[in-house]
TrEMBL record:
Entry coiled-coil feature ranges: none
GO CC term, one of those recorded: cytoplasm
Described function: Involved in cytoskeletal rearrangements required for phagocytosis of apoptotic cells and cell motility. Acts in association with DOCK1 and CRK. Was initially proposed to be required in complex with DOCK1 to activate Rac Rho small GTPases. May enhance the guanine nucleotide exchange factor (GEF) activity of DOCK1.
Domain of life of the source: Eukaryota
Species in which this protein is naturally found: Myripristis murdjan (pinecone soldierfish)
UniProt GO BP: actin filament organization; apoptotic process; cell motility; phagocytosis
Major subcellular location class: cytoplasm
PROSITE patterns given in the database record: ELMO (PS51335)
Gene3D superfamilies assigned to the protein according to its UniProt record, in alphabetical order: 6.10.250.810, Leucine-rich Repeat Variant, Pleckstrin-homology domain (PH domain)/Phosphotyrosine-binding domain (PTB)
Protein name: Engulfment and cell motility 2
Residue ranges of domain ELMO in the record: 301-456
Pfam families, per the entry: ELMO_ARM, ELMO_CED12, PH_12
Molecular functions per Gene Ontology: SH3 domain binding
């Protein structure tokens, strides 16, 4: 008879003694009672608690004991309250070496929410803040390396404790803020201190409206830009993150002013030369921060995007007609000026922002005006502006999990206007190639949208490279690509081919299923979404080779390659999995902040629901991994694989298999119906002469 599911066998260690194997009833037995059953003679059981021996080594509480798995190694340790009290006394002691060791241990334990609660309840945050405020006066006589190490551990512990969200950031004093800002403003400061100071300031700005104003007074953009010119990409990432936080939380009337200051300080060119074109590959977090900066910069255009032109404003009308004059090579029609103004006033009301300054630098900025094939400039400019805003998501909040920045937008001070000019010329060129009339307007815009999105997907590094990509995507090429893509769907429509396809499909689906399961066996790394992205936390999940168990566990850093099963401490039997849910149905997506409620994050979220009423929550790093995992989990449960990737792979593989099987029938017309069966012979008395 198998043991009850609530009983788990674990090993419990104690320093200097042999580990003991015991059984824990996760429902009936209290953790305190478990400690009393331990074979070591220890008095005062309330002074002890159980912790995991591997991984983050978190304390086990009554609430978390249900997460203990069979075969887990636990360690008997002093209780969180006792540990917090001892560390608090040691970091206030006069012994410098003892204080340093205490701060090292505190920095490690502060990531545990149980310990953090106890330490904060003992006014630990205030103690650390006072330590930071007085640390220069107290230890200025010590070696710089010693001082830097002590301060780094203090700031690390402070940041970890505040990250739990137990206390408000508003409780911090002005002197503490000035102290942290001082570390950022110093020209020469230890890298670890600078990293943590930047992270603390970013968290202040993001978590408190009042602290935003205080930080903005203490930190100047020029000082932050100086940190972008170092060789350490971690420091660069933290600096851009703080700039983004200040940008994001700034009042609307301050954002344009801040953007002007960043432009004057040459932020764009510094990022281009020292980050994007640096000698190091761009890491995922840096790519995310560049994407956020790109989004926030383009969002400055939202107000102009939503502003209607006042047809009675002569200055605005003059700008529009000057732009039109440039576009059409200065052609004039003195007799029809008023009529033309009246005709285009309605369209120009919606032209929220123009490119008059950029267009002056483009000598080839002109439109076709030949009879019925005239390209309607006003209407095209309006629709193209709307299209580019949709493609680049102007006005939307940055997506927490997106790294989709475009290097070319950092190559020009007026990147949007230049991009618009490139695209408006593309539109005019495509209009001519299609010999379009006014009735073809929507068709032309569809082609132009496809040209732009295909070119952006190639990640051009400059606007010149974008132009080159677009030249290769002319109207003829778009037709060819469409035809090629359509052939995989429309080539084989006769009944015999359809029947062959239906026979092949189960084999291909089984092939796709095996590929998905093999990928799950290799495993994937997932990032834990938190309030502070720079201190990234990762976890890894993979399927056992016999497809019976999901193994997962926390990692200190993103792995390079496959993670052994031995390092993954937790597991879920596949037989316990009840279902897989996605998107808004996921428990971890139901109560998220506005930033995380982004559509793209929802599209990458999925959860495994398993007995008894437990969940394992995922946010895939990209759409491909999302499809792989949701398909693989559905295959494990015997359900249909319904992802977009499965449909695409199925179409591709079936098309390839069909073409291979029909290779000998090339240029032969396959009849719609099988040939008729011949009439029966008059006699079956056939004679064969084998001699």
């Amino acid at each position: 008879m198998p043991p009850p599911s609530d009983i788990v066998k674990v090993a419990i260690e104690w320093p200097g003694a042999n580990a003991q194997l015991i059984e824990i009833d996760q429902v009936g037995t209290c953790i305190k009672l478990v400690i009393l059953l331990i074979y070591w003679s220890l008095s005062g059981s309330e002074q002890f608690a159980l912790r995991y021996a591997d991984g983050p080594q978190l304390y086990i509480t009554e609430q978390s004991r249900g997460e203990i798995k069979n075969g887990t190694i636990l360690r008997l340790a002093i209780s969180p309250a006792r540990a917090a009290r001892q560390l608090l006394e040691r970091i206030q002691s006069h012994g410098i070496d003892a204080r340093l060791e205490a701060l090292k241990e505190l920095a490690k334990l502060s990531a545990d929410p149980t310990f953090a609660t106890e330490f904060i309840n003992m006014e630990g945050i205030g103690t650390l803040a006072r330590l930071v405020e007085s640390v220069i006066k107290s230890f200025k006589s010590f070696e710089p390396c010693f001082f830097g190490e002590m301060l780094a551990f203090t700031l690390t512990a402070f940041l970890e404790l505040m990250d739990h969200g137990i206390v408000s950031w508003d409780l911090l004093s002005l002197s503490f803020i000035k102290q942290i800002a001082g570390y950022v403003n110093q020209p020469m400061v230890d890298v670890s201190i600078l990293q943590r100071s930047l992270a603390i300031l970013e968290s202040m700005v993001l978590n408190s409206h009042s602290l935003y104003h205080r930080v903005a007074q203490e930190i100047t953009v020029g000082q932050l830009i100086g940190h972008l010119q170092v060789s350490n990409q971690e420091i660069q990432t933290y600096a851009i993150a703080l700039i983004n936080a200040l940008f994001l939380k700034a009042p609307e009337d301050r954002r344009q002013e801040m953007a002007s200051t960043l432009a004057q300080k040459h932020l764009r060119s510094i990022i281009l030369n020292h980050v994007i074109r640096g000698n190091r590959p761009i890491k995922a977090e840096m790519a995310h921060q560049l994407y956020v900066l790109q989004v926030l910069t383009f969002n400055l255009l939202e107000e102009r995007m939503m502003t209607k032109m006042d047809p009675n404003d002569q200055a605005q009308r003059d700008i529009i007609f000057e732009l039109r004059r440039i576009a059409f090579d200065g052609e004039n029609d003195p007799t029809g000026t008023e009529k033309r103004k009246a005709m285009h006033t309605k369209d120009y009301k919606m032209l929220g922002f123009t490119v008059i300054s950029a267009s002056n630098s483009h000598s080839d900025f002109n439109f076709s005006r030949e009879d019925k094939h005239e390209c309607p400039f006003g209407r095209c400019a309006i629709e193209l502006t709307r299209m580019l805003c949709e493609i680049l998501q102007v006005g939307e909040l940055p997506n927490e999990g997106c790294n989709d920045y475009h290097p070319m937008f950092f190559t020009h001070d007026r990147a949007w206007e230049e991009f618009f000019c490139v695209c408006i010329q593309l539109l005019n060129k495509t209009w001519k190639e299609m010999r379009a009339t006014a009735e073809d307007f929507n068709k032309v815009m569809q082609v132009v949208r496809e040209q732009i999105t295909r070119a952006l997907a190639m990640k051009p590094s400059s606007l010149d490279q974008l132009k080159s990509k677009l030249r290769g995507l002319n109207y003829s090429e778009i037709l060819r690509l469409r035809q090629s893509e359509r052939m995989s769907q429309d080539d084989f429509q006769s009944p015999p081919i359809i029947e062959l396809r239906e026979r092949i499909q189960p084999e291909i689906l089984e092939l796709i299923k095996q590929q998905r399961l093999n990928r799950l066996c290799e495993g994937s790394c997932f990032r834990k979404l938190g309030n502070r992205r720079r201190q990234e936390k990762f976890w890894f999940c993979r399927l056992s080779l016999n497809h019976k168990v999901l193994h997962y566990g926390d990692l200190d850093e993103s792995p390079q390659g496959e993670v052994p099963f031995e390092l993954l401490s937790d597991k879920i039997p596949v037989s316990d999995i009840k279902s897989v849910v996605t998107g808004k149905d996921c428990p971890h997506m139901k109560e998220k902040s506005a930033l995380k409620q982004n559509k793209e994050v929802l599209e990458l979220a999925f959860s495994v629901l398993y007995d008894p009423d437990e969940t394992l929550n995922f946010v895939a790093p990209n759409k491909y991994e999302y499809c792989i995992w949701t398909d693989g989990l559905c295959a494990l449960l015997g359900r249909e694989m319904g992802s977009d990737l499965t449909r695409s792979d199925l179409d591709t593989l079936i098309s390839m298999e069909m073409k291979l099987r029909l290779l000998d029938l090339e240029n032969i017309t396959i009849p719609e119906a099988p040939p008729p069966v011949p009439k029966e012979p008059s006699s079956y008395n056939f004679t064969y002469n084998y001699s």
